[in-house]
Each structure stands twice: as structure tokens, then as C-alpha cells.
């Protein structure tokens, strides 16, 4: 009887599927850092193994070695699916409400007055399943109606995850996902499902008019030119290492117009990472002139 090899290039079958060995984990860790800017420590190995097992089954692959070979041959083709597996898409409507209060009470009225006949552009970078851009669209549509503005206003929503983008494009949510939406906004901006769609709600067509949803890897080239009046990148850079954050903030500064705004998540900070912005509120940064 031959001894069981400890060579980490060999995939060992466990009770639930193949095991992620050292060699394959090192490759995945380097690949994810290079292409997604996400640093995976050793403590993430079991999480990565568990989440990727579903992907291996979907592709009909026997083990992680075969999956790594797929990434080597076609990194771009599988990158979005990999990012979906290792990322946690936690989002909600009107998350961090103080950001929306700033838009409603100050920024949108001022922008719509200053830009009459012009353009207003907001970017939701890392839009996940769409709650953020549609919440932005609600306050934007309300401001346009209230002020009777003629501004050409649009929201760009981007994400790397194909599954998240598909959900965002559908714009259909379980009613319990609308807990952050006021009753008035539920009635105004959602169409409630009936029959087979009982328990679901679809965003109003007016919101779809304001939002453009596109795939984008923040670490790769950006096809849009800007400038943007505001960029929302909330609970995204928390996954990145310091050099990646610095590069990203520098690129954001190039895409934001004079005195434009960058919104980060509640646990994120630009401290020591950029000299292009001033902190003007809770995780709200304004570009320096």
C-alpha cells in the first residue's frame, strides 16, 4: 500500500469535495491580489475553498488545480465569477443615511442650480446588486421634480460581479429588502408584484432611466472620461491593500470635477493615503482645487 503523498500539488478529496492545497491557494492568492487588489491571508483559505467549491461544480471541474489552470488560460473570462465567489455583497437601500441627507439638503439643490442646461454625473463604483444606485436615483429624481431642473442627470453603476450586475439590471427585490425605504418612497418608486411575483417589488421605470449599469474592474482601464460630480465607493476599498487604495484614490481624483465629492464606507478612511481630498463630513471627502 503506497503512502499518502503530502505533495500540495495533489488534490485530495474530502467528504464534501476537493481540498485547496498550498500551491493552488498561493496561486489564487497572488491572482486575486493582482487582478482584484484583494489580499487573502492564510486564515481565508477555508472560506475560499468553501465558496469556490460551488464554482468547481458549476464548471464540472475535478479540483482546484483544474480551476487554477482555467484562470491561467483565460483570466479575464473567469475573473468576474471568481470575484463574485470571494466577495461579500452586503448592501441595502439608503445605507449610511447621512450621505443621502447631504445630497438632499445641500449638494443636489446646489448642483442643479449651478448646472442648468448642463450635465450632472454620479458614479456608484461597486454597486453590488443595485440598491445604492437606485437609492441615489430616488433622491435625484425627487430633486429634479422638486426644482423643475433641466439638468442632464445620470448615474453610472459598475461592479465586477456578473451575478450582482444581473440582479441590479433586473431591479427586483424581496419586500423585506426595502426596510430602509420610507413608505412614501415605496409607493412612489416601486411596483409591487402580484400573483407569481407576490412578495417582490420592482423599481420604477423612471429610476431605470437615470441609472446605467456596466461591468467594470476598478483595477483595469476605465472607458469613461468623466468628470463626475460625486463618486460613491463605499465598503469596497476595505478589501484592498494600501498600494491599491493609493492608486485608486489617485485615479478617482482624476475623474472627479473641481470640488467634487468622494463618499466612502463607514469603516473606511483616506487618512495617509491621498493628498487630493479634504475630509468634510463623516466619510465624505471633497476634492481640493
From TrEMBL:
GO terms for biological process: methylation. InterPro entries: Bact_Chemotaxis_MeTrfase, Chemotaxis_MeTrfase_CheR, CheR_C, CheR_MeTrfase, CheR_N, CheR_N_sf, SAM-dependent_MTases_sf. It catalyses: L-glutamyl-[protein] + S-adenosyl-L-methionine = [protein]-L-glutamate 5-O-methyl ester + S-adenosyl-L-homocysteine. Pfam families: CheR (PF01739), CheR_N (PF03705). Residues 13-289 form the CheR-type methyltransferase domain. Signal peptide: none annotated. SMART domains: MeTrc. PROSITE patterns: CHER (PS50123). S-adenosyl-L-methionine binds at residues 89, 91, 95, 132, 159, 217-218, 234-235. Keywords: Methyltransferase, S-adenosyl-L-methionine, Transferase. Its EC number is 2.1.1.80. Methylation of the membrane-bound methyl-accepting chemotaxis proteins (MCP) to form gamma-glutamyl methyl ester residues in MCP. This is Chemotaxis protein methyltransferase. It comes from Luteibacter rhizovicinus. The lineage of its organism: Bacteria, Pseudomonadati, Pseudomonadota, Gammaproteobacteria, Lysobacterales.
Amino acid at each position: 500500500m503506497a503512502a499518502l503523498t503530502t505533495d500540495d500539488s495533489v488534490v485530495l478529496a474530502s467528504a464534501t469535495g476537493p481540498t485547496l492545497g498550498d500551491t493552488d491557494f498561493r496561486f489564487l492568492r497572488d491572482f486575486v491580489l493582482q487582478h482584484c487588489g484583494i489580499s487573502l491571508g492564510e486564515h481565508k483559505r477555508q472560506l475560499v475553498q468553501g465558496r469556490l467549491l460551488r464554482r468547481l461544480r458549476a464548471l464540472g471541474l475535478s479540483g482546484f488545480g483544474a480551476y487554477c489552470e482555467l484562470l491561467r488560460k483565460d483570466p479575464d473570462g473567469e475573473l468576474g465569477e471568481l470575484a463574485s465567489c470571494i466577495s461579500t455583497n452586503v448592501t441595502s437601500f439608503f445605507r449610511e443615511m447621512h450621505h443621502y441627507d447631504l445630497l438632499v439638503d445641500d449638494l443636489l439643490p446646489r448642483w442643479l442650480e449651478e448646472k442648468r442646461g448642463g450635465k450632472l454625473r454620479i458614479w456608484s463604483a461597486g454597486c453590488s446588486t443595485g440598491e445604492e444606485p437606485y437609492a441615489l436615483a430616488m433622491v435625484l429624481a425627487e430633486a429634479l421634480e422638486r426644482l423643475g431642473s433641466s439638468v442632464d442627470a445620470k448615474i453610472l453603476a459598475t461592479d465586477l460581479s456578473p451575478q450582482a450586475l444581473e440582479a441590479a439590471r433586473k431591479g427586483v427585490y424581496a419586500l423585506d429588502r426595502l426596510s430602509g425605504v420610507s413608505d412614501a418612497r415605496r409607493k412612489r418608486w416601486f411596483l409591487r408584484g402580484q400573483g407569481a411575483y407576490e412578495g417582490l417589488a420592482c423599481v420604477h421605470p423612471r429610476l431605470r432611466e437615470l441609472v446605467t449599469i456596466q461591468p467594470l474592474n476598478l483595477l483595469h482601464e476605465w472607458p469613461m472620461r468623466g468628470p463626475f460630480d460625486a463618486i460613491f465607493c463605499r465598503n469596497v476599498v476595505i478589501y484592498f491593500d494600501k498600494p491599491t487604495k493609493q492608486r485608486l484614490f489617485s485615479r478617482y481624483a482624476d475623474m472627479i470635477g473641481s470640488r467634487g465629492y468622494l463618499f466612502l464606507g463607514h469603516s473606511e478612511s483616506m487618512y495617509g493615503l491621498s493628498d487630493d481630498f479634504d475630509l468634510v463630513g463623516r466619510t465624505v471627502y471633497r476634492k481640493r482645487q
